[in-house]
Amino acid sequence: MNLNTVRYIIGTLLIVLGIAMIPSLAWSIYYNDGSINAFLYSTAASIGAGFLFRMKAVLSKDLGIREGFLIVTLGWLMASVFGALPFVFCKAVDTFIDGFFEAVSGFTTTGATIMTNIEALPRGILFCRSFTHWLGGMGIIVLFLAILPGVGAGGFHMFRAEVPGPSVSKLSSKITHTAKTLWYIYVGLSVLQTVLLLFAGLDLFDSLTHTFGTVATGGFSTKGLSIGAFNNPAVEIIILVFMTLSGINFSLYYYLLRRQWDRVYNDEELKFYLGVIVAATLLIAWNIRGFIPSKVDLLRTSAFQVVSIMTTTGYATANFDLWPALSKMILLLLMFFGGCAGSTGGAMKQIRVMILAKYCGRELVQTLHPKAVVPIKIGGKSVPDDVLRNLLAFSFIYIALFVLGSLFIASLGQDMITSISSVAATLGNIGPGFGGVGPESTFKEIPQVGKLVLSFLMLMGRLELFTVILCFTPRFWQEVRINQRSAHIVG
Amino acid sequence: MNLNTVRYIIGTLLIVLGIAMIPSLAWSIYYNDGSINAFLYSTAASIGAGFLFRMKAVLSKDLGIREGFLIVTLGWLMASVFGALPFVFCKAVDTFIDGFFEAVSGFTTTGATIMTNIEALPRGILFCRSFTHWLGGMGIIVLFLAILPGVGAGGFHMFRAEVPGPSVSKLSSKITHTAKTLWYIYVGLSVLQTVLLLFAGLDLFDSLTHTFGTVATGGFSTKGLSIGAFNNPAVEIIILVFMTLSGINFSLYYYLLRRQWDRVYNDEELKFYLGVIVAATLLIAWNIRGFIPSKVDLLRTSAFQVVSIMTTTGYATANFDLWPALSKMILLLLMFFGGCAGSTGGAMKQIRVMILAKYCGRELVQTLHPKAVVPIKIGGKSVPDDVLRNLLAFSFIYIALFVLGSLFIASLGQDMITSISSVAATLGNIGPGFGGVGPESTFKEIPQVGKLVLSFLMLMGRLELFTVILCFTPRFWQEVRINQRSAHIVG
Questions:
Q1: Is the terminal CB of chain A with fewer CB neighbours within 10 Å at N or C?
Q2: Which of B326, B391, B423, B434 has the highest number of chain A CBs within 10 A, making it the mutation to test binding with A?
Q3: ipTM confidence score
């Protein structure tokens, strides 16, 4: 294990994080909202800790799969620990765990909050919350790879560990170039949405914060009633459209820019994703038709919650916890679908659900023809066996974590709906659930140990399970020691 | 498609079913309970229909995989249709669908009932309900293979389609011999339990009916409050032990009789099964410790519901719908585990859950060592790839049916807990669920179309999904036609 390089990169990450707090500081100075000191201390602590980490550490290109996993897991953990500081220093939260939960929820683009009176929070803190979404959406490590040259081949492991989805389409042979391209697209989408929200009547502060929450599929709002508070159909539609766009594989935008229309047009995952949105919207609209008299409002409200939940954003324009069981169960199901691979959306991802369905269909055919060899194809190409194997295991581990997590939250005394939906909503990086954690409630009432477990579920969900789980297995560390020992003997 | 043989076998099955109604007739004559005519008509209708089916049909040994699937699906459907007749004729149910639901629930050993006042039903009807459990438990087709010689190789497809679990251990090279052995063990367990229940103080009628419900992991009782009505700890313990025994692979009893102790001792699935029972019992006992003061009663009550739900029996000695969320969620989870392969228990089966867990563990190892070849072993033997593939697809289809079924029941206006648990309880052949279908409620209030869908889920669950699903795919019938045409051309 090349701990020197791990320390170097984590340290640099903390320095970057400290610098990234400066925009929030600027807003708190502009509004003079009383959180100035909190940001000064947090920035200093983060940068200081960064230099401590980097002490005597050097960057080498000798990065293996283990170093990659450790850097990503530790990087996100440390970012959340230091990201919690502004909340703690300005006393927006009662305990450090509450601050940590809020920071993890921000970076992982979950959007689950423990803040009960959001409008009373300092402006700088609100900006900071939303900005963590934006940093976490495309991936702080990906950002890092784009900025920091010379990480070399090991960077690919980190990149793969952080980019959502079962397979990574390298847009270019150089990982740095791919990372940069993704960030350009991300910034482009963000600028476009901010401008549109300004035109729709929001001020710059609300436009920026809600753009961060949308393009990152995060869900933190500056209002307690989320997007519903604006009562502005134009804002709802802009956010609806950009949530949909942010749930699409960002590679497709790259192909669009290069005018490779057919690659976009023939994308199976995109068709599946849009199909699910339309089907779920119509079903829920039918189910809640008694609640909303106007057909236009009905469709917009239904589509907004469907897209918000499925892309794992978590914004709301209605209290869907009051809807009939069918609508709630459809939303609960969509919590598992998530965005497309390579988007900023979380959960299992559309392509995994698609391939699972194809896998089951193939088995029906093979039961009748035991000796036939039937490949599973996506976009005309066979899915390789190792990708398939990983995808199946991923899905079962995802379901197992959901089940075990729900049982744990229930063991703390929460009811069944709250337990189930709080875990589905954090593991899938969505945000609100049902019952005690519904769209008009918060996670504040969950016991502290429950918040810690939910924080880890958010991290696991964001980093595609394996990365985080492996760092906590004895085997991961055992083999490191064996390798080092044998390296020593050989050396 | 050899429809001649299909007709012959289905016809014979209906004749056997008609004869199997005679014991129920005997009880209704003995108690003179007013259901004598209902049984006379039903027996006549069943035997009459049987001869109609067999008209001009001959038994040939030319049975393929398709014929096997069709015979099993159609056989169980027809048995349920004619099994509904006694309920309809004696007016124990309001509609034919209600009767069909009750008969399917009986044959599939589900034990979900629509009868609201069980104690008021004629004795013959109560016996008949429980007797359908007993016939369905080990499999009416397996019984058939044991009785009827000369079905030949095609019998294996039927056998495999009906025996629970991912792989069939042929106890002998002759399928007839295996079927007979399984039935001998089944009869042996039944006689033993009946005698013990007689000693514990039940009369012959209650001993027999509850033995049928236990060894078949069915769950129909002659009391509205199920086993709780007897208020007899000895009866509870006898039924607890025999439920546990009935959830074990029956092959192990065969090995025991042949004194192959090590094959039983080393059985991984058995250890896993017993481990899950102990763990779940302790967890629930801890969770409900406030409800039951005596520690002995607490453990017995907890173990009884755990074993009853997990073996998919469905008897109850407590209204577990009133328990805290954690206990209910553990029971809901166990609804998916089910019995061991080759037992009379339903749901996914212990071995599938075990192999899934090993599959996920292997993937974690392979993420660190992408090029390693790590086989999945059960009892020291590698699980073949095609078994693994089928098992993974089975699990996803099971989950998909659960999700789609729950959404459908919710679309009929049922609440979330009722929708989810009614589907889990029927697909897994358990019986009672939570909420509207809790242990002290019935399925009567589910709308008629919902009862039909739940009936099909029971059939699919009992026949291990693929058999039934394939019979309803266009491809199954398309290829039949193509095969027949090409056979015609070649001929």
A1: C
A2: B326
A3: 0.93
Q: In the prediction, which pLDDT does B305 show?
A: 97
Query: Which positions in chain A touch B450 (Cβ < 8 Å)?
Result: none
- Answer whether A416 sits within 8 Å of B411, measured CB to CB: no
Structure tokens at B157: 């497809």
Which residues on B lie below 8 Å from A475 (Cβ)?
Answer: 364-365, 368
Mutate to test the interface with A, among B1, B289, B352, B360 (most CBs of A within 10 A): B360
Kindly state whether A410 is in contact with chain B, defined as any CB-CB distance less than 8 angstroms. Answer: yes
Per DSSP, the three-state class of A256 is: helix
Q: Measured between alpha carbons, how far is A374 from A27 in angstroms, rounded to an integer?
A: 58
- Span A190-247, pLDDT tens digits: 999 999 999 999 999 999 999 999 999 999 999 999 999 999 999 999 999 999 999 9
Quote the CA–CA distance of B440 and B433 in Å, as a whole number.
10
B63 Cβ neighbours under 8 A, 6+ residues apart: B2, B5, B71, B151, B152, B153, B154, B155, B157, B158
CB A153 within 8 A of CB A63: yes
- Fill in the amino acid letter for A309: I
Running DSSP on this structure, what letter comes out for residue A384?
Answer: P
Instruction: Measure the CA–CA gap between A129 and A107, rounded to whole angstroms.
Output: 9
Could you tell me how far CA B147 lies from the centroid of its own chain?
Answer: 21
Strand ranges (E), A379-451: 381-382
Query: Partners of B125 in the beta sheet?
Result: none
Asked whether B145 and B179 are in contact (CB, 8 A), the reply is yes
Question: Predicted confidence band at B159 (pLDDT cuts at 50, 70, 90)?
Answer: low
* CA B474 to mean position of chain CA atoms: 27
Contact yes or no for A407 and B333 at CB 8 A: yes
Rounded to the nearest 5 degrees, what angle is found at the Cα of B250, between the Cα atoms of B246 and B254?
135
Residue from the list B363, B403, B416 with its beta carbon closest to the beta carbon of A390: B363
Question: Do B329 and A407 make contact, defined as CB atoms within 8 angstroms?
Answer: yes
Q: In Å, how far are A243, A278, A429, B326 from A310, measured between CA atoms? A: 10, 12, 10, 27
B81 touches chain A (CB under 8 A): no
- CB-based contact B424:B453 (threshold 8 Å): no
pLDDT in tens, A410-426: 999 999 999 999 999 99
3-state SS track over A189-240: HHHHHHHHHHHCCCCHHHHHHHHHHHHCCCCCCCCCCHHHHHCCHHHHHHHH
Q: Do A360 and B470 touch (CB under 8 A)?
A: no
Q: Which two tokens stand for residue A482?
A: 């064996």
Q: How far apart are CA B159 and CA B481, in angstroms?
A: 25
Across the A:B interface, residue pairs with CB atoms under 8 Å apart total: 122
Judged by CB atoms closer than 8 Å, whether chains meet at B466 and A367 is answered as yes
CB contact under 8 A, B396 and A395: yes
Chain A residues inside the 8 Å CB shell of B395: 396
CA nearest neighbour of A444 among A97, A78, A133, A128:
A97
Neighbouring C-beta atoms of residue B75, cutoff 10 Å = 26
Test B368 with A65 for CB contact under 8 angstroms.
Answer: yes
According to the model, what pLDDT value does residue A488 have? 46
Q: Which chain A residue shows the shortest CA-CA distance from B466?
A: A364
Min distance B151 CA to chain A CA atoms (Å)? 20
Cα–Cα separations (whole angstroms), residue B143 to B134, B136, B158, B176, B184: 11, 9, 11, 9, 10
What is residue B72's DSSP assignment?
Answer: H
Taking the C-alpha atoms of residue A279 and residue B200, their distance in angstroms, rounded to an integer, is 57
H helices of B32-118, in order, are 36-54, 65-83, 85-89, 96-107
Q: Which among B180, B123, B95, B162 has a CA at the least distance from the CA of B449?
A: B95
Asked whether residue A169 carries a pLDDT value surpassing 70, the answer given is no
CB contact under 8 A, B368 and A476: yes
